Amino acid sequence: MATKFGFLSKLNFLQDWVSIFISKVNPAIIHNVEKYYIIKKVHYLSAIEDIEGDYLEFGVYTGSSFCHSLRCSKHTEKLNPHVAKTKFYGFDSFSGFGNIEEDDKHPFYTDSNFETSFINVNNRVKRVSNGYIFKLVKGFFSETLKQGALSLGIKQSRIIFIDSDTYSSANDALNFCIPTIVAGTFIIIDDFFSYKGSLEKGVARAFNEFLINANIEVREVFTYGMGGKVFVVSKRNDK
Ligand SMILES: C[S@@+](CC[C@H](N)C(=O)[O-])C[C@H]1O[C@@H](n2cnc3c(N)ncnc32)[C@H](O)[C@@H]1O
Question: Which residue of 16, 115, 161, 182 is 20 to 30 Å from 60, comparing CA positions?
Answer without folding.
Answer: 182
